[in-house]
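Hey,

Quick one before I head out. I ran the complex with S-adenosylmethionine overnight. Inputs first:
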Amino acid sequence: MLPNVLQRSGADPHVPVLADEVRRLLAVQPGETVVDATFGAGGHARLLAGDLRGRGKVVAIDRDPTVKPYFDRFKAATGLDARFLRGDFAVVLTQLAANGVRADAILLDLGVSSMQIDRVERGFSYATDAPLDMRMDPAAELDARQIVNQWDERELATVFRRYGEERYARQIARAIVRRRAVEPFERSGELVDTIKRAIPTPARFGEGHPAKRVFQALRIAVNDELAALEAALPAALEMLRPGGRLAVISFHSLEDRLVKRFLRDRARGCTCPPDFPVCVCGKEPELRLLTRKAVRPSAHELDENPRAASARLRAAVKV
Ligand SMILES: C[S@@+](CC[C@H](N)C(=O)[O-])C[C@H]1O[C@@H](n2cnc3c(N)ncnc32)[C@H](O)[C@@H]1O
């Protein structure tokens, strides 16, 4: 499944996805410590802060420095003990855990925010011509322009196939390499044109925009999103107090698979082969699943916010 978060819509850009379900599963109580590891515009944080009823702490994390004014407004409005830590959640959560900081509820709402997509100059959208950038952290070294102009054909095809599930990955990679030999890519519009020319005509008019998958793949590669998630999950688990809750919203199957496997593995006890007479691994479950299957947005939510279409929520409690 591919996300439709790259599509523009008229929906309110700050509507938090699966908000009621996140609140129900995280079940935040007054006096607790909440970590919003993907603060964005603070939509979820505002709701969770409401559940603290004026008592408790909020740690907000985001790698994008442009969210800071949203955090400042959030802090002023809630009056809570809140702090903003800018950085990759994989790094920040690991440091917090190592420093003994503990949390009762942790949320990861993955991917890009509507705010980032709507800021044309960030280059996340295939719908508007912009510089080829796509960095969530504008200070990061790698941007989409470098990948498109410097990675070799096979690497490009692998990225498009793996992160975008793009059928025509090889054809598109080949067309990119040919085009850049004449003139390097600078703008998203040039890439969209090259993609359209590389794929068979009927595919140009198929499901969704023909550049949707390649743009998703580039965004994941630029921001190393899967590696960040893989490192963040154990750090989040370490930070949780017993009884603490972790909720993760993902927007494509690769992320969801990582989350599902992690939660399932940590919720499992003994891993000894079934024919062992006694347990020798000694493994105890660390988590209890709060969601057996991923929670999807309701039809009502999709009517109100089509950008939520590919969202899947999983949650667990530390035992
Ligand atoms: C979908 S938005 C979150 C929206 C937020 N829940 C709200 O209600 O406004 C995802 C946010 O997470 C940030 N983000 C994504 N990956 C990150 C990472 N590895 N480390 C830190 N922030 C990250 C993005 O910059 C973006 O602001």
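The radius of gyration is 21 Å.

Talk tomorrow,
K.
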